Amino acid sequence: MTFDDYRGIWVYLEVKDGNIAPVSLELLGAGRQLADKRKTELAGVLIGSGVKPLAQTAFTYGADVVYVYDDPIFAYYRTEPYMRALLDCCEKHKPEVLLYGATPTGKDLASAIATDLPTGLTADTTILDIEEDTGLLLASRPAFGGNIMATILCKKYRPQMATVRPKVMKALPPDPSRTGKLVEEHIELREEEMRTKVLEIVRETTKKARIDEADIIVAGGKGMGSKEGFQLIHQLAEVLGGAVGASRDVVEAGWIDHHHQVGQTGVTVTPKIYFAIGISGAIQHVVGMQNSELIIAINKDPNAPIFQSCHYGIVGDAFEIVPLLIERFKEEIPKLKAAADVKEEIRHA
Amino acid sequence: MLHIVACIKQVPDTKIIKMNPKTNTMDRASAPAILNPYDAHAVEEAVRLKKKYGGTVSVLTMGPPPAVKAIKKCIELGADEGYMISDRAFAGADTLATSYALTKALEKIAKQRPIDLVICGKMTIDGDTGQVGPGIARRLNIPPLTGVKKVVEINKEKGYAIVHRKLEDGYEVVQSTLPCLFTVEKDINDISFAPLPNMIKAARYQPTIWTADDLEDVDRKQLGLKGSPTIVSKVWAPPKPEGGELLEGSTKEKVEQLLSLVLAKKELFQ
């Protein structure tokens, strides 16, 4: 067996709520570029129950081939059956590169596969490239809490694997006329041999907007002084209809739940507007929000690094500025809404 | 009686670490070594389960001799036994080689006292991968349960565990056979204050230390740098952001400028 037997760029297509997860579509976009550069195929691997129709979505977003394992045993994600299917696929078709979204499921599956194959696995990649001649994958990621970037190689094993952070790569614009080759695969697995069972799935529909999907995020840091002071962040978020974010300090101080933490050890977000209020702007925080469309920083320290990472900044006291902002937004936002309603009425008249 | 082993690591505190801008290496002297914060939750959970069901909590680490300090911290948290594997042969290990070495140590521990449950933290703050826990589970051929945020029940007699695994929008209730491996989320528990007797025990405690030769059936090619498929080819400083425009004027003027910037995206508010 030589490296020449391993061909093609693969993406593990994670299924979420009956659709291919956004991160997998992003990876098809990134994978397309790698495959074109290496002059090879881009394939997706789809595992689930009743997932065959989703293959067309993968073609639409750039895949040439989709391998499908469609069986009731894959009704919900479990490491063991999914791992067996993906290992089977790797052994049969031998990819040169295999990418996963750095989601809880993607990381779980990739770690298991890497151990069994065995091969190297780079975690939380944010930059991908490939050497045209050798097929060597250059997977770069923030290291040591975002203090440096490191490029990781896997020279002696194939496939080369990486998990890739969501919302970093760009999906291609969908092209519904694109088609590809659907390959149906099968593996013999028996439910009674599975060692884990999902007894129940509980969706927590919180009233507040989810931070990784929010268009507007108001994030606060240690500069808010206390849990009470941090309430101003909640109030501004509420007026704007946005979600609340926080720096790691604030989460560690117990002012807010870990789910709200933005940054290296929290969530990566890309809202349309990101407010960083009383956040100094440590690199660990910035890596989690730097791709936001509009970043606004408010901090009383003119030398705070956050002013290097924002689009617009105000040097000043949050306790003076934020209440004024809340008051003014309360006046202005209803006017915008009213104007939109009027337009809607005219359209229907 | 349960035997729970928590795998832990001593890490530099990346929050306050300083980098040498010329070499892009970290200035180790600038960063105090701490018990990986996620691992503290793993140990805490192990101790809580011991209190509930009875048994023994062991902790295992791989690292240079000063990592004994991290084991002592775990003894403070309530662990009973500490094991450390320490050898130059382990140096330079990536996640694959690390899970191999730790698995060999777990197999040796299990010979003395069979293991019912392995608990790891979600990830380390210096490696940031979360790959070692599931790797150990695969090597021991036991089910990996990642993202555990609550342990509902451990039933050794009937040989199962029930846990809540975190999902992106909620959680799932999963039953697994025992033995199995958990990687735990931060929100699984709050770290208790160490009681005085634990502190005293920790101060005097000396863990069992094994070298590569002390482990059994070890394939040396799978250890350390040699056993690591991934290599770091280069490191560089992340590009410096260019910086934003500071709004000028009185507080009221600044607020008004900000207001118009935000409200310009009027589709968000309609």
Automatic annotation (TrEMBL), chain A:
Binding site for FAD: 247-248, 261-265, 278-285, 299
Keyword list, A-Z: FAD, Flavoprotein
GO biological process: fatty acid beta-oxidation using acyl-CoA dehydrogenase
Pfam family, one: ETF_alpha
Superkingdom of this protein's organism: Bacteria
SUPFAM superfamilies listed in its UniProt record: Adenine nucleotide alpha hydrolases-like (SSF52402), DHS-like NAD/FAD-binding domain (SSF52467)
Stretches assigned to the Electron transfer flavoprotein alpha/beta-subunit N-terminal domain: 9-198
Extent of the signal sequence: none
Cofactor or coenzyme needed: FAD
Molecular function, one GO term: flavin adenine dinucleotide binding
Cofactor binding annotation: Binds 1 FAD per dimer.
Protein family per UniProt: Belongs to the ETF alpha-subunit/FixB family.
PANTHER family xrefs: ELECTRON TRANSFER FLAVOPROTEIN ALPHA, ELECTRON TRANSFER FLAVOPROTEIN SUBUNIT ALPHA, MITOCHONDRIAL
Protein name from the UniProt record: Electron transfer flavoprotein alpha subunit
Lineage start: Bacteria, Bacillati, Bacillota, Bacilli, Bacillales
From TrEMBL, chain B:
Protein name as catalogued: Electron transfer flavoprotein small subunit
Superkingdom field: Bacteria
Family annotation (InterPro entries): ETF_a/b_N, ETF_b, ETF_beta_N, Rossmann-like_a/b/a_fold
Record SMART domains: ETF
UniProt xrefs under CDD domains: ETF_beta
Domain Electron transfer flavoprotein alpha/beta-subunit N-terminal: 23-218
A single MF term (Gene Ontology): electron transfer activity
